[in-house]
Each structure stands twice: as structure tokens, then as C-alpha cells.
Amino acid sequence: MINKKLKLFALTVSIIFAVSSGYACELFGFSFSKPVPTSQLLEQFWKNGNNNPHGWGIVYKEDGKLKIIKEETNASTSKKAAETVKMPMHKKLLVAHVRKMKIGKVCYENTHPFKGKNGNKELALVQNGKVVDYKKYKQDNFKPVGTCDSEFYLCYILDKFKSKNLGKLTEKDLAKLHKYFINMNAHKDNWTNNLVTDGNKLIVYQDNKDFNTIKVFHYVDGQASSDKFKKELKIDIPAGSEGYLFAAKPVAVAADWKKMQPGQMMVIEDGIVLYDKLREQI
Q1: What are the distances in angstroms from CA 145 to CA 98, 141, 181?
Q2: Cα separation of 5 and 43, whole Å?
Q3: What CA–CA distances, in Å, run from 136 to 139, 149, 153?
Q4: How far out from the chain centre does Cα 171 lie?
Q5: CA angle, corner 21, sides to 17 and 26, nearest 5?
Q6: Contacts of 166 (CB under 8 A, 6+ apart)
Q7: CA–CA distance, 49 with 10 (Å, rounded to integer)
Q8: Residue pair 240/188 in contact by the 8 Å Cβ criterion
Q9: CA spacing 20 to 30 A to 112: which of 5, 27, 94, 187?
């Protein structure tokens, strides 16, 4: 019993140190029922680049395909990142990331998001944390371009999509994917917060050791917290909209965001929850 308590204490201390020392990357994503302006949201999120200066990127759906814009530099000082704030974009779904390099050198190939394709199904991933044993996961059909652990991780997931025929992302498929996330999170030094998307669904997984806890904000037009959200960001969200936003560092009205639970996975499409389970429920 004492040994277990000591191990738990050591793990807790290591996670607190990692987060407080700026060890964590940061991620952000949203899914809404109607297209919303992205400018104000990205403007706030890119401020995280100061503590995560080794790359930034976004992914969203355009003309039926996943489009990625990324760069291996500090988002808070990047002219290209500033251009994404000026773009007159309105999206129902978007995922963003700023990188603090841990595994793999600083270069374009190692910058999130990462994207792969299984048949007609495209998947993109951004990740926060580290996967120390990433080389043990087989990539039989999909090979990484760079050397970042997160891209190896995506290739393994794509292999599972192919071998287990998970492309339709039914509830059973999502439960299997949830189990893969938990299994790859099992190593004591693996900390993995994941945002995965096919352009329609937003899949969010919270590290089962509660590393850099992801918070979620449920936007419902007309509710007081949502009105505060719009006012603080000075953002014009269409009437009747509903959606969910995810980030470890909220972009606005921080007190109204709720923490995800260790090992929890949520899946959102068009602002509606399709899947929401704790690790004990699968």
C-alpha cells in the first residue's frame, strides 16, 4: 500500500512539474451546429505560442477535404499565424495546436497537425503530452514522414482503422478507439491528450493520468455563460447556435469551462454529443 501511494505521489509531482515548467504543448478545438467566425478564437489561442514556440498549426474541412496550415515557429510572433486571424473564415469545426518540442527536432514535418488517409477516410491528429514507447506500436500500412512521436501515434491509429474497419466511426468503433487510446496511455511515462478529426466529428481524449487537464465549454445561444463568452471575445456567433469548445487554457470566460475526467473521451458532430464515456464505462 505504501509503495502504491509513493508511486502515485511521484507521478502526481512529475505531472505538476511538467505542466508548470511549460513542458506541455497546447491544443484547441471546437464543433458547432453552425459555422462560427474563427478569427477571435485563433487570436486568443495563438497567445500560447510564447510558451510553446516550436510550431503551430490548424486543420479544418474545406471542399470536402481536410486542409492543414502549419509552420515550425512561434505562433505569437508568426506573420503567417497572424494571417489566419485576418482570414474571414467561418467553420463548424476547427482544431489548432502550438508545440513545445519533446520528441523529434523542430521542423515542418514534426509540426502538428498530422494527417493520414485510410481509403476515403482522412484523419488528422493534434496531441499534447508525450509517448515514450511510440516505436513499439506497429505501423504496417502507414509510415510517418517525420520523427515526432505523435505522428507515429497517428500512423498506428490509421493501421487500426484499416485492420479493424473502423472507418464509419459507429458507436462500437468509437468504443474500440477509446480502448486504443487508453492502452497507449498505460505506460507510466505516456501522457496523451488527443484531438482527432475527420472533418465532421471531433474526437477528444483526456489523458488518464489527468495531465494538463482539458476543459470543455458548452455553448448554447441565449444562456448567460454563452452571452458572456460572446461579449468577452467580441465575437458574432449565429443565433440558435450550439457547440462545444475544448482547451487546457480556455480562450474566454475561464470560470465556466468544466474539466474532463481522466480517461474520458467525447465525440462531437455539428455541436451535438455522439459519445461521452469514462474509461470505466467501456
Answers
A1: 19, 13, 22
A2: 42
A3: 9, 11, 10
A4: 20
A5: 105
A6: 160, 173, 176, 177
A7: 29
A8: no
A9: 187
Q: Are 166 and 266 in contact (CB under 8 A)?
A: no
All three cell numbers of 176: 474500440
The model's confidence at residue 166, banded by pLDDT at 50, 70 and 90, is very high
Placement of cell 458572456 in the chain: 228
Question: Residues 235-271: pLDDT tens digits?
Answer: 999 999 999 999 999 999 999 999 999 999 999 999 9
The parent domain of residue 117 ranges over 25-281
Lowest mean pLDDT among 16-25, 91-100, 169-178, 258-267: 16-25
Instruction: Report the CATH number that the domain containing residue 34 is assigned in CATH.
Output: 3.60.20.10
| Total residue count of the chain as it appears in this document | 282
Helix, coil or strand: residue 90: strand
Residue 118 lies in a domain: yes
What does the pLDDT look like over 98-146, one tens digit per residue?
A: 999 888 899 999 999 999 999 889 999 999 999 988 777 767 788 899 9
Does residue 19 belong to any structural domain of this protein? no
Amino acid sitting at position 139: Q
Q: Give CA separation, 162 vs 94, 157, 181, in Å.
A: 25, 9, 16
pLDDT band of residue 1 (cuts 50, 70, 90) is: low
Residue 185 near residue 132 (C-beta atoms within 8 A) = no
Does some domain include residue 220? yes
Type and span of the H or E element at 4: helix 2-20
What is the number of structural domains in the chain?
1
Residue 31 scores a pLDDT above 60: yes
Statement: residue 18 has pLDDT above 60:
no
The cell for 68 is: 492543414
Residue 17 lies in a domain: no
pTM over 0.85: yes
